[in-house]
């Protein structure tokens, strides 16, 4: 078994329902897209990661299938120099708590839980449309999608206790490491709770959660052949402190189908 040696963990960008408090998903689900600022944050995060990753590296980008994470992942892909392979994994999804969710004032609802298959199908369809649009414009899509990839998590549990969510994220992290070669750079795009869960997976112990801002980036490195992981960077939004760049019109056009408009 070989293990990847570089891993980045990213929280999604700003949610539309944080910009518009009374925003409601027209599909009747609690699955908000990114706000315009969130799209800018995702693009800038990709540009930052491009500077941290060798231009010739193979990059695998695992993302939660929730819309805000898929949009963040595609925004990151637009900012990267590398052409990542996107894999949607339900195991990276939001914590299905019956208490008030850290990201959702009304808490997680079982509407989303009952529609995992529809969620994955919808996001795959939107990604395929983005790729087709790029080919139609005689452009190379900024990412590939592994449509054959299947998450080991086939269904989210509601309500989900803390131990269950810890196990879910740990399974995703370990599987991703075992399936990739050591020269592959992994990027995980997930939710606030997920950033802390994945960091604890690599540490091998539960720790007190730390603050995770929108599009924060954390990184871990595997040292030597011992399999021991070191947290190189705690979740940080330092790369977002400068005024974010304007997203190219072409990129905005490619992302538009995911905005629910």
UniProtKB/TrEMBL annotation:
InterPro entries (alphabetical): His_Pase_superF_clade-1, His_PPase_superfam, Phosphatase_SH3-domain
SUPFAM superfamilies documented for this protein: Phosphoglycerate mutase-like
SMART domains in alphabetical order: PGAM
Designated name of the protein: Histidine phosphatase superfamily
Organism encoding this protein: Syncephalastrum racemosum (Filamentous fungus)
């Amino acid at each position: 078994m070989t293990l990847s040696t570089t891993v980045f963990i990213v929280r999604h960008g700003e949610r539309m329902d944080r910009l518009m408090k009374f925003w409601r998903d027209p599909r009747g689900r609690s699955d908000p897209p990114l706000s315009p600022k969130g799209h800018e944050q995702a693009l800038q995060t990709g540009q930052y990661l491009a500077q941290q990753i060798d231009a010739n590296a193979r990059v695998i980008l695992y993302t939660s299938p929730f819309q805000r994470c898929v949009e963040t992942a595609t925004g990151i892909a637009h900012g990267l120099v590398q052409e990542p392979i996107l894999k949607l994994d339900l195991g990276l999804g939001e914590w299905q708590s019956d208490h008030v969710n850290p990201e959702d004032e009304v808490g997680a609802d079982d509407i989303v839980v009952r529609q995992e298959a529809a969620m994955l199908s919808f996001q795959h369809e939107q990604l395929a449309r983005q790729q087709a649009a790029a080919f139609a414009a005689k452009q190379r899509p900024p990412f590939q999608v592994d449509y054959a990839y299947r998450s080991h998590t086939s269904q989210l549990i509601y309500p989900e206790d803390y131990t269950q969510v810890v196990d879910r994220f740990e399974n995703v992290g370990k599987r991703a490491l075992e399936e990739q070669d050591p020269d592959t750079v992994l990027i995980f795009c997930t939710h606030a709770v997920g950033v802390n869960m994945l960091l604890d997976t690599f540490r091998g112990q539960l720790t007190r959660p730390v603050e995770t801002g929108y599009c924060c980036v954390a990184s871990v490195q595997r040292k030597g052949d011992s399999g021991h992981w070191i947290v190189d960077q705690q979740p940080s939004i330092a790369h977002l402190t400068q005024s974010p760049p304007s997203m190219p019109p072409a990129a905005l056009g490619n992302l538009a189908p995911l905005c629910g408009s």
